[in-house]
Every structure is written in C-alpha cells, then in structure tokens.
Amino acid sequence: MYSRGRHKLPSPPGLIPGRRAGGFTLIEILIVVVILGILATIVIPQFSTASTNAKENTLKDELRYLRTQIVVYKAQHHDVPPGYPGGDNSVAATAADFVAQLTKPTNEFGVTNAAATPVFKYGPYLSAMPSNPLSRLNGVWIVADTEAIPDPTGTDYGWIYKPITGEIIANSTGGDASGTPYKNY
To answer: Could you tell me which residues are beta bridge partners of residue 181?
Structure first.
C-alpha cells in the first residue's frame, strides 16, 4: 500500500512495496550492447582468419597431392612427366594432355583411354583437376620447356606447371600471414 495525502491507496497488482516495476533501464540495455560489441570485435576477426587459414592449408594439401601424383605418373611412364601428348617429350606439352593423363587411365606411353583395360592400366591419378582454393580456378598454365616459371597473375588459371621439371605452383598472388608467398608453397 502506498499513501497519497491522508488516504492509503492499494498497490498495483504484482508490485512489491518499495520495489520498482519490472523491465530494464536504458543504462542496463546500453551496457549489454557495449559488452556484445566488445565480444563481436574479438570473435569476428578470428572467424575471417580461420577461413583464410583453411584456404591456405587446403592449397598446401592440393599442391602436395598434385606433386605426388606427378612423380608417380613420371615413375610409371618411362620418366616422362604428364602433359606431353602420347608421352612424347619432343613435342610441346598441353594443358589438355596434362589433365587427361592425370584423370584417365593411360598406357605406359601416356596415351589415355576412357576406361581401364589391361593395356591402359595406369591411373587415373586424380578424379578431377582440383581448383586452387584461393582463386577457385582449376585451369593449368603450361610453361614451355625453355621458359622460366613466371610470377603468378592470379587470373585465368589456378595452377602453373612446367612439365620438363614437373614443377607445379599456385597461380595466386600475395602471401600468407607469415609473409610466405603462395608461389613458394
């Protein structure tokens, strides 16, 4: 009960005498909003860093796997790396032959076939040419035997491959947080 002048009036229902009504004050709401803002500034950058780290780790894994399969192919095909048509390293390598030789069964000379047979018993080494996780491109830029591997451009192709040496790098510009260029992965 509370009094007004000389008369005592009944308390509103649910209100305990001496206590204020339920709800939050503006100050309490502002404090909660500020705390949530502080937490968001701490957490959100960690999510974006985790995404970048995942792409970089995937890139390292894709390169490691591609390099391993190139070495295995070369060992099974008279020391000729993938990319040379019919296993003839006196002609220019092509991206189409590189992808076909790694994704289809081949004979000992690198001629591809749609299905495995007793003659086409090698491979496939990949189910499909992987995409570069940074650029999402899966094309292969073939470097001529007499040329040096160029600096990555980050466009048109996911990978840069030099068949004569078996080197393959990511066609991605920039580098990771530690300063390592992606081309050095």
So the answer is: 175
| pTM, to two decimals | 0.75
Q: Nearest-CA neighbor of 122 among 94, 93, 92, 80?
A: 80
pLDDT tens column, 56-66? 999 999 999 99
Contact between 120 and 100 (Cβ < 8 Å): no
Tell me the per-residue pLDDT of 127-185, one tens digit each, with 9 for 90 and over: 999 999 999 999 999 999 999 999 999 999 999 999 999 999 999 999 998 899 999 99
| 3-class secondary-structure state, position 9 | strand
CA 26 from chain centre, in angstroms, equals 45
What residues form DSSP beta bridges with 142?
161
If you search the block for the tokens 């937490």, which residue do you land on? 39
Cβ–Cβ under 8 Å, residues 139 and 61: no
Say if CB 98 and CB 161 are below 8 A apart: yes
Q: Which two tokens stand for residue 48?
A: 């974006």
Any idea which residue has 């339920």 for tokens? Answer: 22
Burial of 159 (0-12, 13-18, 19+ CB in 10 A): buried
Instruction: State the alpha helices, DSSP H only, in 22-165.
Output: 26-76, 95-103
